[in-house]
Design a protein that fits this description.
The protein is mostly helical and 165 residues long. The chain contains ten helices and no strands. It has a single domain, classed as Oxo-4-hydroxy-4-carboxy-5-ureidoimidazoline decarboxylase (UraD-like), CATH 1.10.3330.10. The longest helix has 23 residues, at 141-163.
Length: 165
């Protein structure tokens, strides 16, 4: 993990490689890089949070391509895949009934909204995630877009914290 000092001093390509696994949205990455140098982690998180407050539909679509379904193990050796596996550790250990219900809920969500269900899974039990999935299936598309954007921001900030800890 890089120190904040090394991140501040890194060339742009190397610094982008540090933060892009947190949220692969070019505008967000550019904003985080343009804010350097940062005096502390709180300053990074503050700017990153503000930069993630309003996503375009295209940015949301692009970001969702990098998120596996809840309950499906992310494949590959990328930093993003590793982060996803860690974040979904509670789901990986869920009993078969919860896993089946998550899979059914994922399919229903994708049919209803046209993309994967996105939730900050870190720190939540598989039952909490399932309950949120079932509740969010009742949302209209506009409400769900707002919730999904907030979840994406939460995931990005959580991942960013992990990068510098």
């Amino acid at each position: 993990m890089p120190s904040l000092t090394r991140f501040n001093d890194a060339d742009r390509a190397d610094a982008a490689a540090v933060v892009r696994p947190c949220l692969d949205v070019d505008r967000w990455v550019d904003a985080v890089l343009d804010g350097r140098p940062y005096p502390d982690l709180d300053a990074v998180l503050d700017l990153a949070g503000r930069a993630a407050e309003s996503f375009t539909d295209d940015e949301l679509t692009a970001a969702l391509r990098h998120h596996p379904r809840i309950g499906e193990r992310a494949s590959g050796a990328t930093a993003e895949a590793s982060l996803s596996r860690s974040e979904q550790s509670a789901v990986a250990g869920a009993d078969s009934d919860v896993q089946r219900r998550l899979a059914d809920g994922n399919r229903a969500y994708e049919e209803r909204f046209g993309h994967v269900f996105l939730i900050r899974a870190a720190g939540r039990s598989s039952e909490e995630i399932l309950a949120a999935l079932q509740e969010r299936l009742t949302n209209d598309a506009e409400t769900e877009k707002v919730i999904m954007a907030d979840q994406l921001r939460q995931i990005a900030l959580l991942r960013l914290q992990g990068v510098f800890r």
